[in-house]
Design a protein that fits this description.
heterodimer, A: about 210 residues, mainly alpha, B: about 290 residues, six-stranded parallel β-sheet, 6 strands, about 15% strand, elongated, membrane (chain B), transmembrane helix (chain B), transmembrane (chain B)
Chain lengths: ~210, ~290
């Protein structure tokens, strides 16, 4: 073993072990590491916002370069803090309204185009879609399964009629597709979490303990 | 306690212990595992490989320490590929947390290349071959703004240089000069790029994502909205394989090294799921 001599590696490794200790049970070491993480993350974000956003994008232009129009942004931003003063807390609706208005306007047309229209186009049985699977003649089969899956899954969420007859059959098939979707999502989640564990163990066994290169 | 009860009530600490053993052992005693490259990763590799010399590759580094093990190997592999092919790179982050990791990845790969370079043209030089634009909130604003002018959105780069003075930025004005964007991300940014940059400006988008996001993102690959997709550590290992085989770049393959541990961990999970289900069905029959 070739232990690291870098104190930062030691701090990082000990904090990692403190977090892992939660797997046994909740304990003061875990709490200590958790609080350090929250504090450090917030401190980093606040200082970064201050030095990289507020100062160069608002305070410098307003107070050093004399661009008075920026005072509008400052006032709108300050209105967020009126939430702490009950008598004028209603003023917070102004910046919230501006933010929601901007994002809604920007995201509705873009979201409909990218997430609905294009996705519907992807389920239509066309030659382009068959080829998109890169699976030769099997592309037709995959497209057909996708087409049926979408229709059956949608029929499962159709609640305006009792699920009887044809609707019962399609909704049952829909459940199968939904379950396969959940299974895939769960499998991928396991893969992601194990990957994170591997990453941390690579650090502990490598830079800290020097067991692996 | 009956064996059925044992099957249903395995102490979670035993599961964690077994999982730790099967993950640690393959790391200490490495074994080669064949990496089979799948179509989504091959597609992404080809998209990078065929970038026109006059155009740039934009990389959105949006991973933080929580997702670094999955996404950092992707970033390193793509950077090695792009710099080897002399593709111009613009780097950026849509969140503040990834900046340090993005800089570290760029420093590592440019350091590797410059250590072997013999001439000025072999070297990778900041401002000429790549630029790290840094971060500009909120995310939608720079995504939309760069369609008009990149230097107007990022007036200064990550290091504080005026972007309009950098030689590369005189060639790369907006998305018309960017052939492909790769979003290496653990969250929604790939969808933002598709919604705002692709829909409005026609930017091609490739994605490297965590495994958690994979089932959400495959539909976008099928519709052609993504020009390639790398999923989790497995996807990163596939890209590493392509970079090593095709470009003869032999560097540490962190994702590929982790694959045996990943495989054994999955097998353990499968075994425990089967044990739990057998126990459940036996118990139900007994009732």
């Amino acid at each position: 073993m070739n232990f690291s001599l870098d104190p930062w590696v030691w701090i990082s490794a000990l904090l990692s072990l403190a977090i892992f200790s939660f797997l046994y049970k909740d304990n003061p070491f875990y709490k200590f590491a958790e609080h350090i993480f929250v504090g450090a993350a917030n401190g980093y974000a606040v200082t970064f916002y201050w030095h990289n956003i507020l100062v160069p994008s608002l305070f410098d232009p307003l107070f050093r370069q004399g661009k008075l129009l920026y005072i509008i942004s400052l006032i709108i931003g300050v209105l967020y803090f009126t939430r702490f003063i009950p008598k004028i807390s209603w003023l917070v609706r102004i910046p919230i309204g501006i933010t929601i208005g901007y994002y809604t306007g920007a995201s509705i047309p873009a979201g409909i185009q990218a997430n609905i229209i294009k996705q519907i186009q992807g389920t239509i049985l066309t030659k382009e879609n068959f080829l998109s699977w890169h699976a030769g003649n099997m592309g037709i089969v995959w497209s057909l399964i996708l087409f049926l899956g979408v229709l059956c899954t949608l029929s499962y969420f159709y609640f305006s009629r009792e699920h009887k007859g044809v609707l019962k059959i399609t909704s049952r098939i829909g459940i199968v597709f939904i379950m396969i979707g959940f299974g895939a999502a769960f499998g991928y989640t396991v893969m992601a979490r194990v990957s994170l564990l591997i990453g941390r163990l690579q650090f502990l066994l490598g830079p800290w303990l020097g067991i692996i290169k | 306690m009956k064996i059925v009860d044992l099957m249903l009530k395995i102490d979670r600490r035993i599961i964690y212990l077994i999982l730790a053993i099967v993950v640690i052992l393959p790391l200490i005693i490495p074994s080669a595992q064949h990496v089979r490259v799948m179509a989504p990763v091959q597609k992404l590799y080809t998209a990078v490989d065929t970038i026109h010399p006059d155009k740039a590759l934009m990389i959105d580094f949006d991973y933080d320490p929580q997702t670094q093990p999955e996404l950092e190997p992707m970033a390193l592999a793509i950077l090695r590929h792009a710099f080897k092919k002399k593709i111009k790179i613009l780097g950026l982050s849509l969140y503040v947390q990834p900046l340090g990791l993005a800089k570290a990845a760029l420093d590592q790969v440019t350091g590797e290349i410059n250590a072997l370079a013999k001439t000025n043209s072999d070297s990778v030089i900041y401002g000429r071959d790549y630029v790290f634009l840094g971060w500009q909130p909120p995310p939608i604003v720079p995504i939309l703004g760069m369609g008009e002018s990149i230097t107007n959105v990022y007036k200064k780069d990550f290091y504080g240089n005026q972007t309009d003075t950098l030689p590369l930025m005189k060639q790369i004005k907006n998305y018309n000069n960017v052939e492909l964007l790769i979003s290496i991300s653990s969250g929604d940014p790939p969808l933002w790029w598709v919604s705002y940059a692709q829909n409005r400006f026609g930017l091609r988008v490739g994605v490297g994502c965590t495994a958690v996001s994979a089932s959400d993102y495959y539909p976008y690959l099928q519709t052609g909205q993504f020009s390639g997709l790398m999923v989790g550590m497995k996807g990163a290992a596939e890209y590493e394989e392509l970079v090593e085989k095709d470009l003869n770049i032999h560097k540490r393959r962190k994702a590929s090294e982790a694959l045996p541990s990943l495989t054994y961990a999955h097998l353990v999970m499968i075994v425990f799921i089967i044990i739990g289900n057998i126990g459940y069905f036996i118990k139900r029959r007994q009732k």
